[in-house]
Amino acid sequence: MLFRQLFDPDTSTYTYLIADEETQTAVLVDTVIEQVARDLTLLQELGLSLRYCLETHVHADHITGAGLLRQHTGCTTVVPQGANVDCANEFLRDAQRLPLGKIDILAIATPGHTDSHMAYLVNDTHLLTGDALFIRGCGRTDFQSGDAGTLYDVVTQRLFQLPESTLVYPGHDYRGHTVSTIGEEKTWNPRFRDRSRTEFIQYMDQLNLPNPKKIMEAVPANEQCGQMVSSTA
């Protein structure tokens, strides 16, 4: 398996490139429209055919490059079941698997940050957590039908039940971290460690965070596969 972690410094967003080296087919997870040219160049350099653009959720802090990548490559755009994205080609439900050569991608429903968020477990070893679980943190729960209690339940009852050696690759990082493990997050993540469900809800309710800078343009654009904005890529 080829696995690459790519970064957008403006939004601190990670995009993941996963490819089956035998079939030379690839999936990009959580793309950023300003980085489409970078992603197309990397695909060409590695001799890969993009089969899927996959989203963990409808992003509020950046615009996806999925629609533009579909125009360039003919890839299939995939979003979680229940996401308000009519232009997507496919919708993944909980426990559904996405075929990519010999690579196994398992969808794990992880609502709470949004009401239709998915994490993806790749080959039972690499967990793409989107905004459900960050390294030493988690995504906010105060808009897009977020729910702190639901997020606590899915992280502690679903993600933290995976083997402790499972690698954690988040959708964002703001402190310079790139990868963690389930065991490490169970031990050191301050949002969850030694907090009951009630204490977690109280903590999240008191965050009082400002809205993401791009929320007014990003959410409607992402509900149109990123097609509401012009692109220079």
From TrEMBL:
<feature type="domain" description="Metallo-beta-lactamase">
    <location>
        <begin position="12"/>
        <end position="172"/>
    </location>
</feature>
<keyword id="KW-0479">Metal-binding</keyword>
<dbReference type="InterPro" id="IPR044528">
    <property type="entry name" value="POD-like_MBL-fold"/>
</dbReference>
<dbReference type="InterPro" id="IPR001279">
    <property type="entry name" value="Metallo-B-lactamas"/>
</dbReference>
<dbReference type="InterPro" id="IPR051682">
    <property type="entry name" value="Mito_Persulfide_Diox"/>
</dbReference>
<protein>
    <submittedName>
        <fullName>MBL fold metallo-hydrolase</fullName>
    </submittedName>
</protein>
<dbReference type="Pfam" id="PF00753">
    <property type="entry name" value="Lactamase_B"/>
</dbReference>
<dbReference type="InterPro" id="IPR036866">
    <property type="entry name" value="RibonucZ/Hydroxyglut_hydro"/>
</dbReference>
